[in-house]
Amino acid sequence: MAKIDQLSGSKVRIEIEVSAEQFEHGLAHSFEAIKEDVEVKGFRKGKVSRKVFEQHYGVESLYEEAINHVLQETYIGAVTENNLEVVAQPKIDLDITKVEQGKGFTYVAEVAVKPVVTLGEYKGLSMPKQSTEVKEEQIETELQKLLEQNAELVLKEEGTLENGDTAIFDFDGYVDGEPFEGGKSENYELAIGSGQFIPGFEEQMIGMALGEEKDLNVSFPEEYQAENLKGKDAIFKVKLHEMKVRELPVMSDEFVKDLEKEDINTVEELKADTVKKLEESVEAQNKSARVDFAVSEATKNASYELPEEMIEEEKNRLVDNVKQQAKQYNLELDTYLQFSGVTKEDFEANLLKDAARSISYNLVVEAIGKQEEITATEEEREVKFEEIAKQYNMGIEQVKAAIQAYAVDSEIIYAKTIDFLVESIVFED
């Protein structure tokens, strides 16, 4: 038997009565879990009766496992019977001194539940009209990128090294007058201005002539990955062997043909294709902006209470995602953050904001879907199953066995609700 008290919009107090019979069932379960390993003098291992066990060890030795078993069963039962959507582990309050064989007991569970969302205005939201124009400068920029992607490096035989040139050189580094691991290389190729080397290195090479030798005085950053070099002053002896410059091709029909793009053989056709792709990009950006606007405005207009437990759980999920990204580079999280130029404090703070925003959006969109009675059809469900099967190279029946229909329905309803919100936007002139 359970009594439910709503403590807030996102937290409930459940008072649960455990009968003497339920506790006895828990004691029996506890004994069954250990009896195979029980040893009592005069009995074969695993053949001791519960009565004999209690005479030697006391019934209290079964309490911990019995209580855990009973709490789990009765708590889940109370949650299910009362249709509670819990979002975190409960906090249990139980006076264990009142637990006694042959008697029932009462305990209290406080738990965060999915908050009640009170919707505000969400249909017909007013948004500034979006521009769909593709400007000539954008087209030229894209064409220029193509030229630069197909540039060739050619020798520069006169003048001095400039920013943007590529240098082929030897370098030999010293810290405290001693060479260090990784500080020496021959015929190294470096694009000056790329920022690949530590601050000051590339800048001091600018102005060097072919065959020139020069000492570069630099300092390793405090956050440098090699522990023995952090914050250290260093001297690099360099010798410049070659200089190269990037030579761009000329935009022509011949150049376009060399790109080997399907059905594109002339400059005009390339421009038309570029315009088409830019228009598609603009529409994708506009659609994304419409989605962000509709969901964020609907969320601002709604009222709800986010439980901290829910935010923390989502934050932990986001942290795990970043850890997986770091793992792809064989890095620990702290090292990955250093390379990303983000402090642990900022990382944690940003994730908390992201977690709260993500949960808020999901709750509000879900509430709108229910309010508008948006559902998933059998046809839409089948299409979704087929998409998943194709994505993971699985059979339809395998997918259906692995993923419950309600999970697929939730995804479909979420997407349809987003479409509903976006389609209802009213654009200002």
Q: Shape, please? A: extended
* Domain tally: 3
The amount of helix comes to 40-55%
CATH class descriptor of the largest domain: Mainly Alpha
CATH topology description of the largest domain: Trigger factor, domain 2
**Model regions low in confidence, pLDDT < 50 over at least 5 residues:** none
Content of β-strand: 15-25%
| Number of H- or I-type helical stretches | 13
Structural class: alpha+beta
Oligomer: single chain
Main sheet specs: 5 strands, antiparallel
Radius of gyration: 34 Å
Average pLDDT reading: 93
Account of the protein in words:
It is a single chain. This protein has 429 residues and is of the alpha+beta class. The chain folds into three domains: 2-112, 2-Layer Sandwich (Alpha-Beta Plaits); 152-247, Chitinase A, domain 3; 267-428, Trigger factor, C-terminal domain (Trigger factor, domain 2). Helix content is 47%, strand content 19%. It contains 13 helices and eleven strands. The protein has helices spanning 20-34, 50-57, 63-81, 136-149, 201-205, 253-259, 267-301, 308-328, 333-340, 344-371, 378-391, 396-402, 405-423; strands spanning 2-8, 11-18, 91-93, 105-112, 126-128, 152-155, 166-175, 178-191, 213-219, 233-247, 426-428. Strands 6, 7, 8, 9 and 10 form a five-stranded antiparallel sheet that branches. It has a four-stranded antiparallel sheet with strand order 1-2-4-3. A two-stranded parallel ribbon has the order 5-11. The protein starts with a strand and ends with a strand. The mean pLDDT is 93.
